[in-house]
UniProtKB/TrEMBL annotation:
Protein name: ABC transporter ATP-binding protein
A matching Pfam family: ABC_membrane
GO cellular component terms listed in the entry, alphabetical order: plasma membrane
Top-level division of the source organism's lineage: Bacteria
MF terms in GO: ABC-type oligopeptide transporter activity; ATP binding; ATP hydrolysis activity
Topology versus the membrane: Multi-pass membrane protein
Keywords, in A-Z order: ATP-binding, Membrane, Nucleotide-binding, Transmembrane, Transmembrane helix, Transport
Length: 609
């Protein structure tokens, strides 16, 4: 229940629906009990009870005697009506009363369910929105340790499980207990002795039911984790179909997926079979109570003569009326245990601490004046440092290129500049201000980013390019495409910039996708450009076209270029050669060639590729 207390805060905006649900559930429970009581006069008419006995009009003597007063008053009314209009008329009145009570009961049931629908779906919507917002805010480091499929399972099926459990809890708290309470009150007015006898057995049956659900939360948690695992396999499979097919690995991935779904199958069976045991167990124990009631109540009617037959028949109906809410409570309690596991997984994401966030006094600065200064950076993703005592100054308007072997820490610089990861030792300053003192939105607003992987979305070309400037005109979009040398292929597409490029841009070639990524950065028009191997996915012709576009774009702009192809950075103002997280050489292209060191070796190696 601890996690549900945290989930309940999402219900606050919908408290009026909760109040209306409780209101109609109270009347549902009341009419549910009264609808059985209304059968007593009809049975009295049918059995001819008190036919020759004169029933005086009762006098109200207080709340403690209200049950006897109502029964006596109804008896008096029945006798008077029968004498004046006949028994057929009295029976019609009684039947009308019964129909009215059952109609009111079912109307209240409908309205209670009507209002709870808004509450359930509203909570579902708000939790999903909160989870998505949190997922977008969390740093990249969080997702490097988590499976994407597990996160997808939490935001989809786990949230849905909470929704079902949420409804169960409201029924558990309001509707079913009230139905039982009102029914018991009526049962006590009919026969206190018989009701006390019945309730000796209820705690015994309740204890037996509680034993069934003890391990349900643990089993449910295992099933939900396994669901997250096979969703991860699906996500990885869809992303790597070319490799799977190219290496004839279909059998391996089929086996991997089937093993996961087999585990999910077994876990789910155990959860559902344990849950399904609730209803028959509670019903059987309820029937045992009814049987004992038949024996003891029948003795009161036939032997002792202390209970009227009509009262006993209605009493039996009321006793059985307790079974339905009791079964619902036991089933709902299992739902709560199962949902508690889902709530735990959801709250784990929502309560995840985000280390990369704005300070209370963060600066909103949207212009760049002087330089970028990286001072004595030491940084590690896990245990070993990727950057070691790294320092660099990038003056405004200059292009600085980072080169070196894979794993030398080049792309880490881009991740730190944009605060995808935070510096552990040392500092990065823009215009003399530590980037941790900037608002994240302001910091990233100063930068345009083109990554090695062309990250595009299943949307139109226009919407993909306009990510950094949502109010851009078609003319601005086309100008950006022209600068990136992408308009030549976009204008030939069936719908031009309104063409949908498919999932991840899979309708386009690698070079075309990369040129769209560059156009997106061009349109944003930031003062600082970060190009993380932006031309590595291009063929020779596209590289030449894009390189010219990049050079035009980088004029009078501060640029940090992480380069794989050294031919693309020969005009850089400064080239930084990195090896194992350290700067080993720096200078212009000509200066580094003259040094006859690491840079020249890299150039020589690439000239033979």
């Amino acid at each position: 229940m601890d996690y549900f207390k945290k989930i309940f805060r999402f219900a606050k905006p919908y408290k009026k629906y909760a109040a209306l649900n409780i209101f109609f559930n109270i009347f549902y429970a009341l009419f549910s009990a009264l609808s059985f009581v209304s059968l007593i006069p009809m049975l009295d008419v049918l059995f001819g009870e008190d036919k020759d006995k004169v029933v005086e009009k009762p006098v109200y003597t207080g709340i403690l005697e209200v049950g006897d007063y109502v029964k006596a008053y109804m008896g008096h009314y029945m006798q008077t009506a029968s004498e004046e209009h006949g028994q057929q008329f009295t029976l019609t009145i009684v039947i009308s009363l019964i129909i009215s009570l059952f109609l009111l009961k079912n109307m209240c049931n409908y309205w209670a369910m009507y209002f709870i629908t808004f509450l359930r779906n509203g909570v579902l919507k708000d939790i999903r929105n909160a989870m998505y917002k949190k997922i977008v805010e969390l740093p990249l480091a969080y997702f490097s340790e988590k499976r994407k499929g597990d996160t997808m399972a939490r935001i989809s099926s786990d949230v849905l499980e909470i929704q079902h459990s949420f409804l169960s809890i409201l029924e558990l708290i309001v509707r079913e207990p009230l139905t039982i309470i009102f029914t018991i009150i009526v049962m006590l007015t009919i026969s206190t002795k018989l009701t006390i006898f019945v309730f000796i057995f209820i705690p015994i049956s309740g204890y037996a039911i509680s034993l069934v659900g003890k391990s349900l939360k643990k089993r449910s948690d295992r099933a939900q984790k396994e669901q997250g695992y096979f969703l991860s396999i699906i996500e990885e499979t869809l992303g790597g179909l070319k490799v799977i097919k190219g290496f004839n690995s279909e059998p391996y991935f089929n086996q991997k997926f089937q093993k996961s779904t087999d585990n999910f199958y077994h876990f789910s069976n155990k959860v559902l079979n344990r849950q399904n045991l609730a209803s028959p167990t509670s019903e059987f124990l309820g029937i045992v109570v009814i049987t004992v009631l038949l024996w003891y109540g029948g003795r009161m009617v036939l032997v002792e003569g202390t209970l009227k037959p009509s009262d006993f028949i209605v009493y039996m109906g009321l006793a059985y009326n307790i079974l339905t809410p009791a079964k619902a409570i036991s089933k709902a309690s299992y739902g709560v245990k199962k949902g508690n596991a889902a709530a735990e997984r959801v709250m784990e994401v929502l309560e995840q601490e985000n280390p990369i966030k704005n300070k209370p006094s963060a600066i909103e600065k949207n212009y760049f004046e002087q330089d970028i200064v990286i001072e004595n950076i030491n940084f590690r993703y896990e245990e070993e440092n990727v950057l070691k005592d790294f320092s660099l100054t990038v003056p405004k308007g200059q292009t600085v290129a980072l080169v070196g072997q894979s794993g030398s820490g080049k792309s880490t610089i881009a991740n730190l500049l944009t605060r995808f990861y935070d510096v552990q030792e040392g500092s990065i300053k823009i215009d003399g201000i530590n980037i941790k003192d900037y608002k994240l939105s302001a910091l990233r607003g100063l930068m345009g980013l083109v990554t090695q992987d062309s990250i595009l979305f299943n949307d139109t070309i226009r919407n993909n390019i306009a990510l950094g400037k949502e109010n851009a005109t078609d003319e601005e979009i086309i100008d950006a495409l022209k600068i990136a040398n992408a308009y030549e292929f976009v204008k030939d597409l069936p719908e031009g910039i309104q063409t949908n490029i498919g999932d991840g841009g899979n309708k386009l070639s690698g070079g075309q996708k990369q040129r769209l990524s560059i156009a997106r950065a061009v349109l944003k028009n930031p003062p600082i450009m970060i190009l993380d191997e932006a031309t590595s996915a291009l063929d020779t012709e596209s590289e030449r076209l894009v390189q010219q576009a990049l050079e035009n774009m980088m004029q009078n702009r501060t640029s940090v270029v992480i380069a794989h192809r050294l031919s693309t950075i020969q005009k850089a103002d400064k080239i930084i050669v990195m090896k194992k997280g350290r700067i080993v050489e720096q200078g212009t292209h000509d200066e580094l060639i003259m040094l006859d060191g690491n840079y020249k070796k890299l150039v020589t190696m690439q000239s033979f590729e």
